[in-house]
Amino acid sequence: VKYHLVYILHFLWISFVISNHGTPRIFKAWPGQPLCRRLSNCDTRFLIEEAHDSDIGQNSVQMYSLQKNENFILVTDSSQVEIALDNKLDREKQQDIKLLLTAVDGGSPQKSGTVVIQVTVLDANDNAPVFSQSVYKARVPENSPLGTVVVTVSATDADEGVNGDVTFDFGHVSEEDEKLFSIDSKTGEIAVIGVTDFERMTSFELPVIASDGLGLSSYTKVCIDLVDVNDNAPVIHIKSLTNPIQENVSPGTEVGIINVQDRDSGTNRQVRCFIHQNVPFKLVPSIKNYYSLVTTDYLDRELLSDYNITIVATDEGSPPLSSSKIVQFSVADVNDNPPVFEEQTYSAYVTENNKPGSTLCSLTARDPDWRQNGTVIYSLLPGEVNGAPVSSFLSVNGDTGVIHAVRSFDYEQFRSFKVQVMARDNGSPPLSSNVTVSVFITDVNDNSPQILYPAPEGSSFMTELVPKAAHGGSLVSKVIAVDADSGQNAWLSYHIVKSTDPGLFSIDHKRYCEIDIKTGSLVVGERIDREELCGEKVSCMLKFELVLESPLELHRVSLLIQDVNDNSPVFPKDTIKLEIRESADKGARYRVNEAHDADIGQNAVQIYSLQKNDNFVLSVRGDTDGSKTVEMVLDNELDREKQHDLNLVLVAVDGGSPQRSGTAVIQVTVLDANDNAPVFSKAVYRVSLSENSPLDTVVLTVTATDVDEGVNGEVTYEFSRISERAKKLFSLSSKTGEITVSGPIDFESDSSYEVRIDAKDGFGLSSDCKVIIDITDVNDNAPVIYLKSLTNPIPENVSPGTEVGIINVQDRDSGNNRQVRCSIQQNVPFKLVSSIKNYYSLVTTGHLDRELLSQYNITVVAFDEGSPPLSSSKIVYFSVADVNDNPPVFEEQSYSAFVTENNKPGSTLCSVTARDPDWRQNGTVIYSLLPGEVNGAPVSSYLSVNGDSGVIHAVRSFDYEQFRSFKVQVMARDNGSPPLSSNVTVSVFITDVNDNSPQILYPAPEGSSFMTELVPRAAHGGSLVSKVIAVDADSGQNAWLSYHIVNGAPVSSYLSRLELCTPEPQCPEGRPSRRVGCHASADNNSTCEQHETSLSSCN
């Protein structure tokens, strides 16, 4: 509260107007000097200087008089003249008062002088300012600019001058209001000087004081209401949030609660809330300004693991304000995706004879789940390969998926197998997927070729007889060898490594096609020359037999060799000589040997052309056998005198692309007459020839005659058309027409040959014939046994009748010579079963037992039906693969182990041993404790067993006083698949150690180790003082007790005998086991010490 002490003053201003009326003279006054008195003093006096009269005495001024008025009276005395305020002045009634003051002398006549006293009533602060309104009300928008006039207060004051000057100020206001508003002290304008915020304060009530110059004041109240402006954007609050969200939540699940607040009011605080993005979430209004954030669809962490959801809130103000908030969600993984392998199947290739542990391939499975749900663990699914568990062949790294070989593979035992690998995640429950891995074993050249024929005769040397007259190229022997390897590793080349005459013999061999075991493709082994294989045959076929295993299938493959234009036409001679009589008639025909093209069809000779000349034209006609007759026709008569010799070029062109051609020069000599050409006795000669016929054997003699005489009748023979192969096998006598053998004849290489022979007279006239030579077969090839498939090793648990091998027998001869019988001569549990042509299945006839016999060497013998018959044999080696068909067997029915109590942990108790006759992992014994309890604790907390050695160790120290024996079950399990096992009982006995002190039960000590017994003073010797009873927790002799008095004063003079009693099981309680004499005093205390002793009886 502020107090103002206001003094209300009246100011009296007196001015003197001087006039000269005579004596007395004018007054002297002090103009401009007010005289101030309080209003409450009505006798306030104002000194007036007396009038002056130059006269003296009675003539001087004698009295004064004042004009009558309501306010003043005149007061005089001998020394001064005063006017005194008789009634209070009121400026507001009369502002100016004029008083006439007269001074009168005492002369006669009296003279007087006057003065007008003008009294101006100055304002005294006797009126407080008055506001125009008792309460002012104003409205101003929040955030109005600084200096904005809110309202103007006005107040009036009836006083004048300083007393009427009104100033304005705030009454008692808060410091905060003082920072927001100011008031102009002169104008009363209230203006904004701070930031007005509707949200902090909606209205203000300001007291305003209006004060005049000398402190009179009045109050008014100014009420200012702030008008809300939309200056606050909505604020989004996350009240609740489920984060992370399980990806398997159902649509409509609430995952968050959103609250939106706007500090504005009215429509400015009305808020709409929504989500902008296309996300599987929406906002559902609940209670006022609250929204539930719910899912609208299924979530999938693997597609999108994090969501940044922008929530936008917009108010209804003008202009509207908005805000946004990003809500981050992570989607928690659920194990909803099994691992997926990158490939549908995998193929692994491993070279045989690999090192165990070598890497075959790597598998990769992806699991889009997170952490343990996406952690992939690889394992082999149980299965068998050739009867053995797959784990004995392969292992897979559980973390990396790398597959390793457990053992070394042998291509000759098996060439491929399949396993199943499982990829499992670590979720709960775990999900998994499987993939097939095909393992292909590639061949290594680790088998030496085996020579099957000729078989060595008791040594490594073989004898073959060769006719002394044999020509070069004659067949000496056929060497047949096989190689257990495959592909190129089985391709054999033959070399003569040592010879007394290196240039005398050579070896020939061909192998045209092979099978790529990885792709199954039939591939070319070496260059195929159709002309070399099939000569002039229109159709050229290479025939093969393709064998598929498991199941056995035989497929015959015929490979059609297509011709390419790789040979040019060739005339038998580069120069053809013709001698023609000049008298020859026009139209005479002269035969010319046709050109030979080793190609066939369109690639063979198609066109002949003759160099342009004046005498001859060319005539070509086709024969029924496909050959062409080429003749020169005399078109103009010859004139020997003009031209003795003619050289003409004959061109043969084939139809290939590009075309190839061959030329021959025809030399025509014009001579005298030669009328007749030679004539063969047959147009076609056919003859049979045995293969392996000796060199120089006469095959056939062709005969042609010429009716001319002399030189014109002399006939010579030559091959006009013959293949390159036939050229090496046959020769022709030009004089006799005799065809003889000049090379090795092999029915298996070619069964027939066709040649053409020309007969020509001395001057060039000729004719030809065809010769067909059929080769007859001789039994010169022993059967060859091929192992097409072999299951090695054979699991010992295969059933009788199981196919373990496929054998093919081939004989290159024909007819009866190639009919073959195959058999096994030994007494073994195997037999041959004929299947398709020349194929046999090797099957078991009984049960196998590896533990009885682990290997078999089977001799397979093949005989043909030739005369004499030829035979061959092959040894097939089998090993019997172990099957886990024997469980481990313990050497004893039960085992007992003894251990002294207080043993050290880890000490050995005993050893168990089990034997398994199976092989390798099937016979590897692993020991383990079967689950169980000993005194309520797991057995594994008492004992452990070494898995490899069977040694049983103590895990802890035993206490005989807790328990004295217990039993455990030990299992011996082999490492087969599935594993076999057997159990044995091990009884563990704990032996006692003297580790417990005796405990005195009676007399019980009374607060100390001393016990008090009262003995009558008159007690006689032998009187019972007390019975001491003690026990020992140990057992046997360790629990037998002896008693001694170890101190007392003096013992011998008081006690003569101590009766000892121990409640041993051997003696009834209270029965003395022994008496000891001693001395004791009846009034002395004695200490009884207990000792252990061995007692033989309870007497």
TrEMBL record:
Keywords, alphabetical: Calcium, Cell adhesion, Cell membrane, Glycoprotein, Membrane, Repeat, Signal, Transmembrane, Transmembrane helix
A GO term for molecular function: calcium ion binding
Pfam families given in the database record: Cadherin (PF00028), Cadherin_2 (PF08266)
Major localization class: membrane
Residues spanning the membrane: none
A GO biological process held by the record: homophilic cell adhesion via plasma membrane adhesion molecules
GO CC annotations on file: plasma membrane
InterPro entries, alphabetized: Cadherin-like_dom, Cadherin-like_sf, Cadherin_CS, Cadherin_N, Protocadherin/Cadherin-CA
Membrane-related topology note: Single-pass type I membrane protein
Signal peptide start-end: 1-19
Domain Cadherin span(s) in chain numbering: 51-131, 132-236, 245-341, 342-451, 466-571, 572-680, 681-785, 794-890, 891-1000
PANTHER family reported for this sequence: CADHERIN-87A, PCDH2G3 PROTEIN-RELATED
Name the record gives this protein: Protocadherin gamma-A11-like
Organism: Myripristis murdjan
Upper classification of the organism: Eukaryota, Metazoa, Chordata, Craniata, Vertebrata
Gene: LOC115366925
